[in-house]
Every structure is written in structure tokens, then in C-alpha cells.
């Protein structure tokens, strides 16, 4: 039986197979999985906001897409992952409430996804799969053993990416 | 004068915020009780300063299926107000309200398999009325103008829904401060939560308006 490691909001964790990583009830936040398929080492960060430079209080690195990814890579290389091997899978960034007006805060999900993609591409990390946007929450599980990301949503068939 | 800092609040500030929850939720509970013509009780409000990872746990776990009705606040204070009930309690509530109107086909939805348009619309309106009761009592207590948006509803995992107010707090700090009141009836079939989530500056505005 795989052992599941939970990752909370604005938090991150790393593991090697046979351990696995999960984050429950992702809404507008984005769950970013980084994976070294050769060493079978994975990391998961649950970011809340796109950009640490726009926020004064930015001591928690895992809260932001930009610093969250940097810190996660550091955590992973510390347990033996090789940066050049890393690939990623991402999920989340939903718009939970269908606000009619174009308030900036309401598009936070989209902006989180966009910032995540920009950051990954600037680091040359390929996104192998994504399940982002729309208007529903997601629970994700990542298994370094298989490299598969399992996604559960309410009233929908589970997905495996 | 009284500035709230997420790192240190004194007991007096906690007490006053708890009392605000008490008065607001008291009115909201009364409104709910009148609507369904049955007794609804409320618990002592909690003023909680939470790490983000703890936020989804307040309503019974991140994956708990809930109906969340969100209002953004305006006027003299900014922030959000949320009314949350798990799916079972929500369908129990709409059945109490609409029971006579619904035919038996619609009753199937009470198993948490999603709600009909009619049920969602009823829940939205219930949320609107009781949030209005909460906010108007808060407004008359503090003498502040408090306006609210139209209700925005989502039916999903609690963690996903609570990420929306959590992100707002994420912009200013690493913790979320909220005033939470649980309500319910005797057999627990109607349990739910009122969450008042002002921004940090608005906490100061509220406390100042009360002479603190």
C-alpha cells in the first residue's frame, strides 16, 4: 500500500516512490507536481497566488507560483533529484464562484495557472499534462512509482493524467 | 486606535470580535428559524487565527461536500461573508422550505447527487436573507455602512470553496482571521456555518467604531 503524504494550502512536500503526494480540495489554488522520472522523486507545491513580487508579506515561499517552484526544486535536489530531468503536471486554478463582473480578484485561478506556466517555461520544465481552469474543485494524488497524476472532482469521472 | 496584527491580538479584541459574531449570527439564526418555522440553535462563535492549511478543516475537512454562498462586502468595510452547509443539511433545508412544492422525482436529489435549479435558487435566497440579517445587525451595532454583493454560490469540496477567501488573506499575510459561528437544530440535520471574513484593515475599522 502506498503511503500518502498530504500537502496543505501554501505548503509543499517531496517524496520518493513508493510514497505518494496528495492535496485535497484544490480550488483557485494550483497544485504543481514536479517529477524526476529517472530517480522517481516527486514534489508537490500548493500555491495560492501568482507573483511574490506584488505582495509585501512574502515570507512563505510556497504561497506563490514563482518562489514556490524555485523552493520546490531546491527541496527536490536535496533528496537527490536532478534538475535537468524534471517534468511537471499541474492541476487546479478553478474559478469557484461565477462572478458576473470582471473583478480582478475573481480571475485569480486563471492568473495562478498563467504564472505557473510562465515560471515553468522560463526554467525549461516541460508540462506533460494539466487539468486546470473550469469551475470545480479537485483532489489530486501523484504517484512517483508510475508518474501518474490522479484527479478526483465532485460529480465527475476520476481522471488519470 | 486599536490596530489588529495577525501576530498578536489581545483578549479584549478577541472578546469583542466574538461578540460581533454572536450578535450577527444570532440575528441570522433567528431569520433562518422563522423561515423554516422551526428551532435553530447557534453555538458560541469562534474567532480563529488559522494557518492556511488549517482553513479547510473548520467545516469538517477539505473534501467535505458543501454548498457555499459567498458575499463580498463593501461600504465602510471590505471582506467577505460566507454561509456554508454540507450537502445533506442543504437538501434537508430546501426540503423543509419547498417540500410541498416538489414532486417525488426531485426528492432523489437529496442524496447529495447535486441539486436542481429550483433547489439552488432557493438556497441562494436563503443565503441572501440570512446574510442580510447578519450584516444589518453588524451595521447597526457599529454604525458603519456595510453593503454586500449579490450571493455567489458554489457546490463543491469545502477546501476548494474556502480557497477563495484564503487567497484574499494570502495577499496580506500567512494566516487567516475569521469569525466562525456554527448553527444547527437538535438532531444536527441542519448544521452549517456563518463565516465573517473582514480584511485586516476592516477589523481595525470595526474595533475603532466600537470605541476600542
Walkthrough of the structure:
The complex is a heterodimer of chains A (161) and B (212). By secondary structure, chain A is α+β, with helices and mostly antiparallel strands. Chain A has one domain: 60s Ribosomal Protein L30, Chain: A (2-Layer Sandwich), CATH 3.30.1330. Chain A is built from two helices and ten strands, in the order E-E-E-E-E-H-E-H-E-E-E-E. Chain A is globular. The two termini of chain A are 21 Å apart. By secondary structure, chain B is of the alpha+beta class. Chain B has one domain (11-209): CheC-like (Chemotaxis protein chec). Helices cover 43% and strands 25% of the residues of chain B. Chain B has helices at 11-36, 87-98, 104-107, 117-142, 158-170, 200-209; strands at residues 41-42, 46-51, 65-75, 79-86, 146-148, 152-157, 175-184, 192-198. In chain B, strands 1, 2, 3, 4, 5, 6, 7 and 8 form an eight-stranded antiparallel sheet that branches. The relative contact order of chain B is 0.26. Classes of the chains: A alpha+beta (161), B alpha+beta (212).
Order of helices and strands of chain B: HEEEEHHHEEHEEH
Q: Gyration radius of chain A, to the nearest Å? A: 15 Å
At the first level of CATH, the class of chain B is: Alpha Beta
Distance between the termini of chain A: 21 Å
Mean pLDDT across residues of chain A: 92
Strand order of the largest sheet of chain A: 1-3-8-9-10
Distance between the termini of chain B: 7 Å
Indicate the percent of residues in helices of chain A: 10-25%
How many helical elements of chain A? 2
Strand percentage of chain B = 25-35%
Number of strands of chain A: 10
What are the segments of chain B in which pLDDT stays under 50 over at least 5 consecutive residues? 103-112
- Please provide the ordered H/E string of secondary-structure elements of chain A: EEEEEHEHEEEE
User: What's the level 1 CATH class of chain A?
Assistant: Alpha Beta
* Structural class by sheet pairing and helices of chain A: alpha+beta
Outline of chain A, from the CA principal axes? globular
